[in-house]
Amino acid sequence: MMQEPIFDFKSMPKIELHAHLTGSITRECLHEIWKKKKGAGETDLEDPLVVMPPGNHNYDLTTFFPLFSSYIYHLINDAESLDYSTRSVIKDFARDGVVYVELRTTPRAMPKAGLDKAGYVSAVLRAIDAAQQEEPTLHARLILSIDRRNSREEAHEVVALAKRFRDQGVVAIDLCGDPTKGDVSLFTPAIEEAKAAGLKVTIHFAEAEASASDAELSTIMSWTPDRLGHVIHVPEAVKQQIAARTGIGLELCLSCNVHAKMIVGSFEAHHFGEWWRVQGPIVVPCTDDVGVFGSPLSNEWALIQQHFKIGRDEILGLARKGIEAIFGGDDEKVRLRGIMW
Ligand SMILES: CNc1ncnc2c1ncn2[C@@H]1O[C@H](COP(=O)(O)O)[C@@H](O)[C@H]1O
Fold this sequence. Notes:
binds N6-methyladenosine-5'-monophosphate; Metallo-dependent hydrolase; hydrolase; eight-stranded parallel β-sheet; 15 helices; alpha/beta; TIM Barrel
């Protein structure tokens, strides 16, 4: 039986630390962009509401990644749609009661728009800035993602961009992308460069069996990442290492993992249940790709309350603990301590 929500999770001030920009664009927003382009004869793409029917959130890892490479990146391919969709993502988080968000995105050139990767990052930062002015309670930072398919040089390029745009809100480097692709050891020098520059590091960790070999997990742990995303296929010995790293952030994405069948079973079986009480690490519930999986952060918290029977004080304590895992600096932590319940 559904448990009554203990309070309005939309009103609860929340922190979002694992949200991919392009995956956070709602279908409605994609549709608006498509309609405008279609009307102007600027696209032959099919309507996003046909490609991604509303209510269908069951993308698995084989259907999920092509959604970007074969569809969304072809729709969001110019400065105007990038600006509009980024603002829309920020506003959606704000309306859901998110008070601090770290968006992440993979720098990509948009030749049609005359934007190189630096132009892309700059455009995203400008859009974030503009949206924040309209939603002053929400503060946003940006994380730049290295894609697992990147070359060593491309990874260094992402780090160079993160350094260049650091004073404009870029706080960290992420490693993401299709877990069946790539060899993470290629990126050790780039991650070391990022750390030496004082950037924070968050890594997609063991999200599929293919990306959970002993060699991969030990390489990633040797980078001493500040946060880990997903943390699914983790052997006991590595769990103990994680548990011993006080303050390490664990970005757990329940709906994504359940809908994409990345875990066996449903919400009750999610490893959130295993981690949230563990002392050292800081568990932060996140949405991953709310545009694809359709569950806003307020709903993720409601699911947590419903499936793990956590009381009001524990929920609020957990939400506040997330403050310590942000990359946004001490002043931001002070602000959040003042506004979170
Ligand atoms: C199952 N969860 C996930 N695991 C791994 N990588 C993911 C992801 N969700 C999203 N991405 C990565 O983020 C890109 C889209 O946003 P940006 O264009 O960068 O803003 C995807 O192409 C993929 O590489």
